Amino acid sequence: MMNTTPIPELYVSPESAAKLKTEAARLLSHDLTHRQICDLELLMNGGFSPLKGFLGEADYNSVVEHMRLADGSLWPMPVTLDVTEGFAAKVEPGQDIALRDAEGVILAIMSVTDKWTPDKAREAKNVFGADDLAHPAVNYLHHTAGKVYLGGPVTGLQQPVHYDFKGRRDTPNELRAYFRKMGWRKVVAFQTRNPLHRAHQELTFRAAKEAQANLLIHPVVGMTKPGDVDHFTRVRCYEAVLDKYPPATTHMSLLNLAMRMAGPREAVWHGLIRKNHGCTHFIVGRDHAGPGKNSQGKDFYGPYDAQEMFQKHQDEIGIEMVPFKQMVYVQERAQYFPADEIEEGMTVLDISGTELRRRLREGLEIPDWFSFPEVVTELRRTSPPRSRQGFTVFFTGLSGSGKSTIANALMVKLMEMGGRPVTLLDGDVVRKHLSSELGFSKEHRDINIKRIGYVASEITKNGGIAICAPIAPYTATRRAVREMIEQYGAFVEVHVATSVEECERRDRKGLYKLAREGKIKEFTGISDPYEAPEKPEVRVETVSVTPDDCAHQVMLKLESLGLFG
Ligand code: PPS
């Protein structure tokens, strides 16, 4: 049965908070990342109970190795405060630091007890199953998270501020109070990071019936898998579906969790979080919190691994699992059934997430048996077909390879076609206007490319075409730019594959001569590296092909990607 006593929070009283805030202003400050703000909110409001702060080293090691805190209690996910080496050098255990949000507001004080450099490869293998960058959390661990971890208890001064869907957000204690007030004794929680379609609604209906419980739709709005539908659109979709449930049986509340897509471990974590929010039952479906395919094209986890792991720890989690097979539509019955309850000879229909995205992208029909018209309308509003989205063409190649000439030809062709505004971010031009203070060290080149990527992502988001033409010699930086842009539209990488010998023979700007003489240092291809892209969308060769033809090859690629409608 439901536990109705309030869960301990880490907040101090408003009077103490006001006093502590003044004192905290003098402390060393850490600016929290988006993910850390999500973690902090759930630490402070008891969503991550029994944690009292960011994990210390002993707890971290124990969680990574055994899925348990050092005291033996079940906790599957390292909730750590990662910082840069530079910041870590200024902090010693025993020191208090202020934790600030993106606007500089102090949310909490952390009493640092531990500082250590984690073995990230071990964390990746044990927690996520493989040290494989195709896993979004492993990629985050290696490319976004700082090198050093700080641990220690947290004193909460205020909740992170949310300006969106305020009325739909509840702390664990607010939800517990709501269930108490409504007299709900059993509540089954449904975790989701996707829009709800008919299959999900059917599944939640059945789960509530099986458990004889009320239903909590508890979608994650903090961080989900890169590429997911943004939470604003999803919440509008959820609101539309909520009308389809019998009133007073179902509640919807938004959870500001930063997911890690850790499959089985994540399912256990989700269970603990829902227990803290007062729920008695939890739905675990097929491939719960699955990260997709690994770099070998295989699934990271088996489809029902999460259910197995949950089952093993169910008593300790303190919440009952309602397991579900995938729900599929049976045409003859005009109804949804779990995949393992289908009679032989029946016609089973299903539309995968990938197929749905393709249909949205290409403006194709989405049948009524699959989703609700209101949901489809919402999704179409945010995901117009590719031919109406912005995109980025990103040229990369050596200095003097012909990037600018081809990029210019492409720009003119696109402008002739019309329909979308076009911006050319040429290497030289960017260096003059956007990056005039930068040189050519790895660090400066990376800053330069990330600036270009940022501008291109804004253009893409707003429906325009960005053509970029820097050298961009590093694979990892180009990958980061791709990730930034692909949230909003297509990213088409074009490798202008002119060899260094040919570039030097042409030496259009006379720079290769100076580089050979050592008068220009760190010159790409001569005294600095160039990592050629392995799988660009287009690779052009400029010795026997004219710039006009190269630009035409790019146009054909854009056409084949459905970008012209
Ligand atoms: S990077 O690495 O992407 O930031 O470089 P990028 O901004 O595209 O470089 C723009 C132009 O700078 C000139 N230049 C050099 N290139 C490479 N290495 C060194 N050390 C260097 N110094 C100056 C060069 O003309 C680049 O222009 P393009 O259009 O590529 O020829």
From TrEMBL:
Domain ATP-sulfurylase PUA-like per the UniProt entry, residue ranges: 7-158
Pfam family, one: PUA_2
Residue stretches making up the Sulphate adenylyltransferase catalytic domain: 169-381
UniProt keywords, alphabetically: ATP-binding, Kinase, Nucleotide-binding, Nucleotidyltransferase, Phosphoprotein, Transferase
A Gene Ontology cellular-component term: cytoplasm
Pathway in which this enzyme or protein is active: Sulfur metabolism; hydrogen sulfide biosynthesis; sulfite from sulfate: step 2/3
EC number, UniProt record: 2.7.1.25
BP-aspect Gene Ontology terms: hydrogen sulfide biosynthetic process; sulfate assimilation via adenylyl sulfate reduction; sulfate assimilation, phosphoadenylyl sulfate reduction by phosphoadenylyl-sulfate reductase (thioredoxin)
Domain APS kinase per the UniProt entry, residue ranges: 389-540
Entry GO MF terms: adenylylsulfate kinase activity; ATP binding; sulfate adenylyltransferase (ATP) activity
Keyword ATP-binding: yes
Keyword check for Heme: no
EC class of the enzyme, as a word: transferase
Binding positions for ATP per the UniProt entry: G397, L398, S399, G400, S401, G402, K403, S404
Enzymatic reactions: adenosine 5'-phosphosulfate + ATP = 3'-phosphoadenylyl sulfate + ADP + H(+); sulfate + ATP + H(+) = adenosine 5'-phosphosulfate + diphosphate
PANTHER family: SULFATE ADENYLYLTRANSFERASE
HAMAP family in alphabetical order: Adenylyl_sulf_kinase
Function: Catalyzes the synthesis of activated sulfate.
Family affiliation: Belongs to the APS kinase family.
Protein name: Adenylyl-sulfate kinase
Species in which this protein is naturally found: Thermohalobaculum xanthum
Gene this protein is translated from: cysC
